[in-house]
Structures are given as structure tokens and as C-alpha cells.
């Protein structure tokens, strides 16, 4: 094969080189490091698959890993099963141009311009037990017995994390859905009007089937985002993921094992911090990649049929 006969390859080559350098090479490098006993400094010893065996046989590591994975899967269920329908409805409101839809669109998308740390700070100003205005409101209306630290209600830690994360990200996918709806054929929409389809009938029978590909793509993105969430869990629960690891997630577990519990590059790390850390990273990559691939494969096969 000659590059001279296929000039388009010259356009692909720069992107392929950069992608190989910054994406493919780190993946293979991490996979290689996971086969060594190493803390990133000095000599390293080849141990084969021992790190993987230890991850799933050591009681403490196994408990932390499964606990973090359970929380990530909980976020996947809420983000895909609850947040996406809400985003679709918000997008439909904007698409149908209800009164005040421009203001509504701006308000929903506005959190995208606020950094995560500021969002957590704002949440503290509202829901914190001591300084939060929500407890003050409850006290003012005679419901003082219900005041509590809403950011750390036992048993509801992941709900709190989801609500704050959802408020931040609800506008992101909504914009994609609005764009997909605006690309629908005017003739089809006019035909549905003439056939007497009502507001909800048009939404469920006309719009949803036609933007199914966009919904599948957003579902996959939501899955990946839920499985790689780090910032909110770290800012709300610290490096340990809250009391008894109630807000722990897989990326935080990876961070804790690799960099220690006292802070990045300065914490207490084990003699195999990098070896075990890259092992966790590889397992995370495999879970995310394989499930996302299956999701896309099944969805597009159904669409082709």
C-alpha cells in the first residue's frame, strides 16, 4: 500500500500518531506495570498476575474494590435510568419553545460554567448542618426537628453525591438532545400534527424513536462518566470516600492505593503502590471498555434490524 495512492492517509497520520502517543501507549504501559511489584521508584520485580490475584483475594482490597464498584454502578443506574429521562423532557420543553424557554435553557446549562469545587462549596452553603440555609428555612417554618447535615445523612451519601452531580451535568446532555430534536424532519412533525398527535404522543411516538441513536450515545457517555467519577466523591468525602467509605468510588480507590491517604506524592504508600494502582486502573479500563462496547454493539445491531 502506497501513501502516494491514498493521500487521505496523510490527513489521518498526525492524529493517529498523537492518539497512539497519548492514549494507546499509556494503556499498554499501565498493563505492563501491573505485572510488576513496584512503588514507582527504584527497582521493580516481575510478579506476573500476582497483583490481580491479590486484588481479588486480599479481603481488605477486595472489600474496598467491590464497595467502590457498587457505588459506581449505583450512579450508572441513577444517571441512565433517572437523569436521562429528565434531560429528554427538559430538551423537549426547549424544543417545543414553551414560554420562557430561553431563560429555562440558560438556567439549566449555567452550572456547566462553575467549577466542581465551587459547586460543592455552594452545596455546603445550602445543605450544611451549621451554616446551610436549608436548615434555617426548616426552623423558620416550624420543622426544626428535621434539621440535619444533609450532606452526610447516613445511608443517603450516594444520593447526595448523585443529586449534586446531576444538578451540575443535567444541562450537558440536554443540549445534545435539543440539537438532535432540531434535526428532525419538519415534514414528519407536521404530519404528526395533522394526524392529531398530542403533546405527549409526539414526544413518545415521534421524537424518541427518531433520536434513539443520540440517546444510546448519551447513555454510553453517562455510563463512562459514572464509572470514572472522582471530583465530587473526593471533595465531599475526602480521600477515604467519607465515613466508612460510604462515598467511595473506583477512581478514588485507585488514587488512595497509588498515592496514599495523606495526599498525592506525599502520602503513606505501600511498597507496591504503583503495581497495585495500575492493576486497579487496568481492571477499571476493562470493565468500562467491555461494557460500553457491548452497549454500543447491541444498540446499533437493533437499529440496523
UniProtKB/TrEMBL annotation:
InterPro entries: MetI-like, MetI-like_sf, UgpAE/MalFG_permease
Record Pfam families: BPD_transp_1
Protein species of origin: Cohnella hashimotonis
Regions that span the bilayer: 7-28, 73-95, 107-127, 158-179, 215-237, 274-296
Domain ABC transmembrane type-1: residue ranges: 69-295
Protein name, entry field: Sugar ABC transporter permease
Matches recorded under PROSITE patterns: ABC_TM1
Keywords linked to the UniProt accession: Cell membrane, Membrane, Transmembrane, Transmembrane helix, Transport
Principal subcellular localization: membrane
Homology family: Belongs to the binding-protein-dependent transport system permease family.
Annotated membrane topology: Multi-pass membrane protein
Cell location: Cell membrane
